[in-house]
Amino acid sequence: MSLHLGEISYTNILPFFHYLDRQELRNRGVQFYYEVPSSLNHSLAEGTIDIAAVSSFAYAKNYDRLCLLPDLCVSSKGKVRSIFLISKKPITELEEARIALTSASATSIHLVQILLKEFYHYDTIHFETVSPNLLEMMKTYDACVLIGDDAIKARREHTQYYYYDLGEQWFTHTGLPMTYAVFAVQKDALQSHPELLSYLSEEFAHSRDKARNDKYKKLAEDVSADMGGAPSFWESYYKGIHYVFGEEEKRGLLYYYSLAYKYGFIDKPIPALNIWGSGREVQSSK
């Protein structure tokens, strides 16, 4: 029986996947599926994917059915450089604004609403979810949220707008890292594929560490060739992202969940994170 692995089609997750021995994993029974975050979140919720690096928000929505792999995440302590609120006017002048939210995101579109409600005290902003196209968004709306490669490209090509990095905004107001993606696994898969999941978790960490030990040089060269932008930009970009799910990242994520519950974005509080331990048991981290 195969293990279905979902892979986000974004550059920020690449350190975990760049150096995987995909053929060896296929030989062991892993099948790869490539999707944008919102589609991957849905697949995990529906149970058609066993494990994936998914939106942190998707984990919260499916908390009872999922566990997290230890030590793996996509987070930032300050600027993330690929998740922006893009606005025609300063963030302090957005009362009664109309803001377009990218349909490709879950964590970030709730993060921006939390930031604007909790820390800027706005209560009359109108939000609408649309396809991620900057020019179309800005024809109709006062501001928009873009993530991932769409955001990076927008920042590089359209400098006439105000850009607010949501990772920086979160850190400024909370003093905590923001975790955007986690590696979530179905609890049923933990029972049916424990050995394979243990191997896969180790391989993710190995790929991450190999990219980091090279100071992201080879990865940056490959991404530059594929996506454009100078290799130096991509080296700096990856160095600014945290890929280890440490205690501070866990505290920041739990605070995000507490605010998501406060504003009605999730139905019940998340008191702790269910993390698969090194002894292959589920451990709660508060």
UniProtKB/TrEMBL annotation:
Q: Which UniProt keywords apply?
A: Lyase, Menaquinone biosynthesis
| Gene Ontology annotations of biological process type | menaquinone biosynthetic process
- Which Enzyme Commission number(s) are listed? 4.2.1.151
**What superkingdom heads the lineage?**
Bacteria
Please report the name of this protein according to its UniProt entry.
Chorismate dehydratase
Reaction(s) catalyzed by this protein? chorismate = 3-[(1-carboxyvinyl)-oxy]benzoate + H2O
Q: Which gene encodes it?
A: mqnA
Q: Mind telling me which InterPro entries this protein's record contains?
A: Menaquinone_biosynth, MqnA
Q: What GO molecular-function term can you cite, just one? A: hydro-lyase activity
Stated role: Catalyzes the dehydration of chorismate into 3-[(1-carboxyvinyl)oxy]benzoate, a step in the biosynthesis of menaquinone (MK, vitamin K2).
Q: Name one Pfam family in it.
A: VitK2_biosynth
Give the main EC class: lyase
